[in-house]
Design brief:
homodimer, 230 residues, alpha+beta, elongated, DNA-binding
DNA sequence: TCAAAAGTGTTCTCCCTACACCCATGG
DNA sequence: CCATGGGTGTAGGGAGAACACTTTTGA
């Protein structure tokens, strides 16, 4: 018999965090999911997350759970919505603060510690537990919103990349197609990209310049507020 | 001796809502605050809010508390951040979901039921309880963000108004000045305003047309997504 | 007769869009 | 020699910003 030592005058909900983690690889936007081993929703997939401890903020909790369950760490993690439908968890009242996180898949390969964690393409999402399908839709919406105001590529791209690669990231996230030349002009115009000496041969046809993000310019623009039209 | 009948295996935080309520009157953006009658922070001012019940979502809780504590109801209320610093409440662990609400002050005058509730101009905010000063700053930021994508005037303006009045609302919220003619052109261009037959004499100098919002056009634009540049 | 408020229109400029040309490589 | 991919430049259109004229009233 388990002991219940924490007693209150009024009923208290549980508070959890859930992390919608986006990555980018092979020209595809991907999401990290964990297969549930326990009821309810056993065998279904869900976002990593867990209970918030009494001595940590929800941000700290989200980062901790992310690390514990997947081994991943990230610079970009932010809350985007609090899910609080009284019936959202069949066991008990659980209020969950959902986070949007971005990771560089190029750096963390094999970093998905949990054996039951897997990256999914957006068009191959399996059935999700709880209200996590709605969570995913809202996270994606938030990501698309964010991309207009912040050069999120910073967090999803490898250190060095070609303009084409960056364009494909934007196209994957927004699900649109851009004109090659206009896209380059627009990105270079903000001065947040540094053209490197280095080149690569993305195809055997022709070599392409590599670029890196200019963190200083980026931080400067983040302060002023900047708007990227698409 | 009070009884504590709700027991859990692990400690649970309390979950509350807080409402940052904006109104607009006398060419000023205003915020509704309630004076605290109890410790902690007795005598300090705070946003209306309270504990979330077990059978309601945070949205429902926020609306309920708003109604209970101020008598106000609103169409526009949305969460904007979850405040969760473990130390934010000196009594116990309290996680609060903060809401942004807009009310038409022209319709609710005298509607502040609570004797200890008062509207404050933004430049006359008294000392606030808990982390509510940070809450206010973030709410204001969110409001300014929102105004670029939604004709929030709907919720803050009276039914009928002049272009000048609408302009002054935008100027009050964003703390900038606009060219009279360009502002009118921009607003009319979206087709969300209906020019009425009616006129008023805002000054004894000359009469001005009254306008009302065109809800249909507004809903149409809200779906498509629209962007108001400033 | 003059100042103040409001209604209306024009021009300039810049940025976004669409689109074309050049060059190098591998087959 | 030609198809493919990538680097660069140009013309047109639309929307925002700057700006001027007219009308009406009260002092």
């Amino acid at each position: 018999m388990e002991e219940k030592n924490y007693c209150y005058k009024y009923p208290h909900p549980s508070v959890t965090t859930d992390c919608v983690i986006f990555g980018y690889e092979d020209m595809k936007l991907k999401v990290l999911l964990i297969e549930r081993g326990l009821e309810p929703y056993k065998g279904k997939w869900a976002f990593p997350g867990g209970f918030v401890k009494m001595d940590e903020s929800v941000e700290e909790g989200a980062r901790r759970e992310l690390k514990e369950e997947t081994g991943l760490e990230t610079n970009m993690i932010e809350q985007f919505y609090c899910f609080s439908d009284p019936q959202r968890d069949p066991r008990e009242r659980v209020i969950s603060v959902a986070f949007l996180a971005l990771v560089k898949m190029s750096e963390v390969h094999g970093g998905d510690d949990a054996a039951n964690a897997r990256w999914f393409n957006l068009d191959e999402i399996p059935q999700l537990a709880f209200d996590h399908d709605r969570m995913l839709r809202m996270a994606l919406q938030k990501l698309r919103e964010r991309i207009h105001f912040r050069p999120i590529g910073f967090e999803l791209m490898p250190e060095k990349f070609t303009l084409k690669q960056l364009q494909m990231l934007y196209e994957a996230i927004l699900d649109v197609r851009f004109d090659r030349r206009n896209f380059a002009k627009k990105m270079l115009h903000f001065d947040i990209l540094t053209q490197l000496e280095e080149t690569v041969w993305p195809t055997p046809k022709r070599e392409a310049y590599l670029y890196s993000f200019n963190k200083e310019k980026y931080d400067e623009l983040k302060q002023k507020g900047f708007r990227l039209e698409f």
